[in-house]
Protein: Exodeoxyribonuclease III
Organism: Pelagovum pacificum
Amino acid sequence: MTFTLATWNINSVRLREDLVLHLLQTEAPDVLCLQECKSPLDKIPLEGFSALGYRYMVGRGQKSYNGVAILSKLPIREVAAYDYASLGHARHIAGQLDNGVTIHNFYVPAGGDKPDREVNEKFGQKLDYLTAMRDAFHAEAPETSILVGDLNIAPREDDVWNHKQLLKVVSHTPIEVEHLGETQDAGRWVDVTRADIPEGQLYSWWSYRSPDWDSADKGRRLDHIWATPDIAGAAHSSRILRSARGWEKPSDHAPVFATFDL
DNA sequence: ATGGTGGTTTAACCA
């Protein structure tokens, strides 16, 4: 079978219901993983999604903040929902398709402004969250799995618009990149997007604070698709739908896609 | 060093 998966930080699924519907209609991924739904689960507008064939959802909700959900045309059953670092936040959901593939959907803490856990508690929480992810994947090696989400870290020099200028900016500091690398290694995760598109600048997020986001192009690749080695080779057609950042009342993130032939 | 823009919820928090 072949299926296409997308991941998108939607920044309020209720405010942007129409954008989700538009993406489902025009791109029709089999599975769409959302982050920052900013909604309790029972207030996510499922009717429209269901009418387009997305009859299955697993997720974790929370009022005002965070929130992750997986919308699927294919049957999916919940298999886990972790609260790493015990933050009490809705930042993870995992579901399994009938073909045996497990999909982890993460919203890693953004980490605040200052990259110093001594003066900024949120930065420490981000590092602790990544360490907990690492330890969990080390304890039980994932197989036949895909990990997606807003990981809030742009690891490579060509994942940001200016490597030198961002070395002290949260999302691209060496300690964050190191933590993310350890998490990736612990699960033997393959960065599917970069395996597919190894060269060149690649961004999935552009700040709202830059009105000329398109021409300035000061982006970062914060949104990722990883897979375990047993299925990573089945992935192809990776892409980032940059045009979605230019839609009316957009999310500040663009959707990232990959297709798997299994 | 600062402020720039958004969402949720209505003052303050988060990104």
